[in-house]
């Protein structure tokens, strides 16, 4: 009767290949953070990262800006330590970069009061862009003289008077969500998702930020409930 032998331990090369494959498949987000936090790369320079080599004291990561060596300090005792060390480095990188471990990967369109805000501001910008069509002896002028409380002249004056304040406020709100929320929660600058949130906030204003915060809070609660 043949003796049952325990399976042989994987070789270092096989283990390294498995770790590299796993990191490139599921953890490119963390690889980018390593480059930014420990090698000082910008977000754009750290894009499209791929782990190409791993030793006990370093990782070689290729990104949009070339190949970079990220030091592992102190060195690992064995490649079997890689999982724990990668998690520790990811947490350290998040803290150094001021990022959250909660990632948002969806866009939620306006709802409730947000719809009214979106429609109202969109309507104002429509009025501002078509203001040149409102001239005496035109149908638009005649209609505004009848329906607008201050007549057509009052309409033109009001649309012009609030244009700069409205534009400044909404540019500021779009800048603010990008600065304080999108990057922090893993939305890459210039991506489709980033553009959706920035454009929506430019039109809708604060309700878009409240909706984004609600997504973050929902994910936080989901994680907390999963622990119990």
TrEMBL record:
This is DUF2470 domain-containing protein. Gene3D superfamilies: PNP-oxidase-like. Keywords: Membrane, Transmembrane, Transmembrane helix. Residues 16-89 form the DUF2470 domain. Pfam families: DUF2470. The chain crosses the membrane at residues 115-134, 154-178.
């Amino acid at each position: 009767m043949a003796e049952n032998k325990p399976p042989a331990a994987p070789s270092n090369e096989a283990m390294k290949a498995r770790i590299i494959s796993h990191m490139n498949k599921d953890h490119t987000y963390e690889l980018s953070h390593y480059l930014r936090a420990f090698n000082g790369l910008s977000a754009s320079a750290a894009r499209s990262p791929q782990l190409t080599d791993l030793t006990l004291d370093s990782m070689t990561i290729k990104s949009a800006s070339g190949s970079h060596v990220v030091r592992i300090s102190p060195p690992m005792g064995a490649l079997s330590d890689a999982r724990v060390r990668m998690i520790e480095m990811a947490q350290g990188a998040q803290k150094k970069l001021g990022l959250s471990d909660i990632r948002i990967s969806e866009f939620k369109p306006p709802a409730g009061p947000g719809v009214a805000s979106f429609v109202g501001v969109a309507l104002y910008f429509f009025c501002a862009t078509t203001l040149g069509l409102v001239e005496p002896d035109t149908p638009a002028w005649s209609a505004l003289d009848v329906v607008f409380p201050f007549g057509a002249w009052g309409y033109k004056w009001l649309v012009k008077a609030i244009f700069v304040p409205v534009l400044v406020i909404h540019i500021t709100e779009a800048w603010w969500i990008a600065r304080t929320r999108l990057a922090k929660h893993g939305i890459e600058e210039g991506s489709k998702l980033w553009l959706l949130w920035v454009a929506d906030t430019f039109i809708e204003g604060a309700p878009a930020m409240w909706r984004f915060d609600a997504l973050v809070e929902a994910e936080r609660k989901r994680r907390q409930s999963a622990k119990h």
